[in-house]
Amino acid sequence: MSPRSSAEKAPPLRAVPRATFAMPPKKDQTPVEDVGAAKFGRVKNNLRMGIVGLPNVGKSSLFNILTKQSIAAVRGIHRRLVRARWDFETTDDGREKRPTQENYPFCTIDPNEARCPVPDERYDYLCDMWKPASEYPAFLMVTDIAGLVRGASSGAGLGNAFLSNIMATDGIFHVIRAFDDPEVVHVDDEIDPVRDLETITAELCLKDMETVKRAVADEELAVKKNPTMKLSALFKSTMERVQEMLSKNLAIRTGEWNTPEVEMIKEKLPTLITTKPMIYLVNLSKKDYVRKKNKWLPKIHAWVKEHGGGIMIPFSVEFEQELFDLGDDSALVEAFYADNEGSKSALPKMITQGYKELNLIYFFTAGEKEVRCWTVYNGALAPQAAGVIHSDFERGFIKAEVVAFDDFKAIATKPSMAEVKEAGKYRQEGKAYVVKDADIIQFMFNVTGKKK
Ligand SMILES: Nc1nc2c(ncn2[C@@H]2O[C@H](COP(=O)(O)OP(=O)(O)OP(=O)(O)O)[C@@H](O)[C@H]2O)c(=O)[nH]1
Ligand SMILES: [Mg+2]
């Protein structure tokens, strides 16, 4: 049987949207660096970020905007695709039928979970080039979590329930309130984002401390029961260091750990919260966001730096909401930008950074039928990447035909690989190939081989 290619045998897929967000400035194609806490992360392709913070800081408001944005992006692409092929459906009285939220259930998985399209101009470029029948961007999964209060680790508020929700995520968007509004009560009365950072960090560290203590007790019990076993020096030293950091309110991800220690933490303490990557989102008033000034920003920045560093993204629920409410009327949007010193939405940056912190990348498949982003963890080998499309592709993997997006863009003038092949940029890669971000790939596979 002759080998088949992934383009011939892709499973049936539905048309999904392309992000309509503005793109941040394009960076050069340097390899993705190994980011922060990624070393503690799970090696999985569907990872999620959870929105965490004190009550009333704007978590659900942010989540709702992200969800509405995603639905709007879906609508936009739907309309574009449909228009390209046949007239847009109209209602009995001749008005254009608007796709409704119910048509796009995949944006909101449940009331607390959204799939946010990852904005990427490379993907847009491929869609514009191929004009495929269906388009499928990469998505970042985001979960809204209820507010955490002081004492949550010992059961205050909904306490442990929140913390177990956080445990189930792979990365954290930590929302911090730096907007003042007498109408919106602060749990601790006064606005003080640095105190809030301390409160949340302390709760997360306390919860982790509980996890470590339990793990140590379990291990000691196992040794007691089985005299042939003994606590390894690595176990003891790692657990001691973990406890030492937590007792000082320091997140485990910010420590310097060697590979055996990382492995030990992953094996014995898989549910730690403070190993997860964290992005700090500072919710400002619209006024402060636009003028890029707020008295707390330098203090928050200093705190983050002292606590192991991390990405801090200022944003404003108020600004995002107003911008979103303008819809896709470009004249109104331009006027809004002009009125607000050219400030743009911070949501695209949140999504792309979230994706990056989770150590995820995507490769493309591109053809007339479909242009699609496929998410893999950074470091995935070609057969594993093939397996994301279909398990047969991984089982029967023969080779991957690969061109880097930048090479394709520089060479191809039409939706075909012919020019790229001629220029010698169409590579044949085998099982040991590590997939790179934005590779355009076609897999060759043969499934007649025995199941391994
Ligand atoms: N003025 C102002 N109000 C905001 C802003 N962000 C959120 N709010 C208001 O703050 C209140 C609480 O916002 P939510 O988004 O529900 O807060 P939350 O963090 O999800 O709160 P919990 O779910 O209780 O933990 C709402 O009345 C929002 O309208 C903002 O940027 N400026
Ligand atoms: Mg909420």
Give the topology.
Elements: E1 4-5, E2 48-52, H1 59-85, E3 108-110, E4 113-117, H2 121-130, E5 134-136, E6 139-144, H3 160-167, E7 171-177, H4 193-225, H5 233-247, H6 259-268, E8 278-283, H7 286-291, H8 297-306, E9 311-315, H9 317-325, H10 330-339, H11 347-357, E10 360-366, E11 370-377, H12 382-389, H13 391-395, E12 397-404, H14 405-411, H15 418-422, E13 427-429, E14 439-445
Parallel strand pairs: 2-6, 2-7, 5-11, 7-8, 8-9
Antiparallel strand pairs: 1-14, 3-4, 4-6, 10-11, 12-13, 12-14
Helix pairs in contact: 1-9, 4-5, 5-6
How would you describe the overall organization of this protein?
With 452 residues, the chain is of the alpha/beta class. The chain has two domains: 16-40 and 360-445, Beta-grasp domain (Ubiquitin-like (UB roll), Roll), CATH 3.10.20; 48-356, Rossmann fold (3-Layer(aba) Sandwich), CATH 3.40.50. Helices cover 38% and strands 17% of the residues. The protein contains 15 helices and 14 strands. It has helices at 59-85, 121-130, 160-167, 193-225, 233-247, 259-268, 286-291, 297-306, 317-325, 330-339, 347-357, 382-389, 391-395, 405-411, 418-422, and strands spanning 4-5, 48-52, 108-110, 113-117, 134-136, 139-144, 171-177, 278-283, 311-315, 360-366, 370-377, 397-404, 427-429, 439-445. The protein has a seven-stranded mixed beta sheet, sandwiched between helices. Strands 1-14-12-13 form a four-stranded antiparallel beta sheet. A hairpin with a 3-residue loop joins β10 and β11 (370-377). α1 runs parallel beside α9 (317-325). The chain is flat, with a radius of gyration of 24 Å. The structure holds guanosine-5'-triphosphate and magnesium ion.
